[in-house]
Amino acid sequence: MTFRTALSGIAAATTNLSVTSNNIANVSTSGFKEGRAEFGDLYAASIFGTARNTTGSGVRVTGITQQFTQGSVEFTSRNLDVAISGGGFFTLNNNGTSVYSRAGNFQLDRDGYVVNPTGARLQVFPPVAGSSTSFETGRLQDLQLITTDNAPLATTDVIVGSNLPANGAVPAAAPFDPNDTNTFNHSTSVTVYDSLGVAHVHTLYYVKTATANQWALHNYIDGTAVGAAQTLQYDNQGALTAPATGLLTLPAYTPTTGAAALTLTLNVGSSTQYGERFAINDLRQNGYTTGRLVGIEVSQEGVVFARYTNGVADPLGQIAMSTFPNSQGLQNLGDNAWSQTFESGDVRRGAAGTSDFGLIQSGALESSNVELTEQLVNMIVAQRNFQANAQMIQTNDQIQQTIINLR
Description:
The chain is mainly β. It is 14% helix and 35% strand.
């Protein structure tokens, strides 16, 4: 009996050494979670139970559990490296099967899908049609980068925040001529875009009229007049009174590029007539030209944006996070991946930063949570346990040998 008891101790110590060796081997593996060998004592029992004075029968391995504590977050400055700070797992599609991982070292395959090193595709919640802030959290899809150009958007609104000098004088020459600086007081320009993404120069000319606190605004696109002059009227405090809404709708302008007609609305509601200086405090428009993909960005909430050269950021989806009632019940598949089991409980999905899901850190990786010093101490302890049990076998052998040699 003593031999078997000591052998069980040797087997347990060997398992502990194997677990410790695996932990040490994976000290640099991104997203790795250390294992821990757990043991239970053995007692011989009968239908009457275990006798009070029965000696133990040794030890057995009751389980090897993984410790899902947070690993340190190491910054890599690579956009496709993503770390989870807090709870949850990445959701991956491995040839139709859902697997889960804490390792965020993703890359692109030849079809533009975001995959892990084994080819499993990262799952996201797709954007709601027509929205850039809402996502369909009840549906999953593979994250794929679209490499085609971003479509242009024709300009419809131009915001012009100007200050016109209160002491402005009527120009010396008349009538207005955009090529004669003596026929207008001030000018400014902004680039607008047609439906094909072609840029056009929209120039605004300010002409002081003979009426007190009144200005005429002439609009030209690519040197062609767009409608008649618009009237800007201010009160004796310098505030705009006409147009009352602050909006000026210009007649349609048809570009020569074959694009659809441009219909611009000028928002001059913030313009004023103060002091002695002309100033443009705000000048912007809502259109843009075509854009080429230059990269992706991931927010803390896991929203993946495609960035284009035209400054547009299109949301491609929100990273789907998963969690389980019992994470230690997950089946370890290797390659930093786990699968759901009966013991783990049903998967629960959500977005980063909600409920008990952690935040997403782009340009970073979660390191292994193995503490090397602790593992080296565990190795020494397991080695001593192995030696002690081996010594017990040797001692028992000597005792039996002594008994056999009795005369």
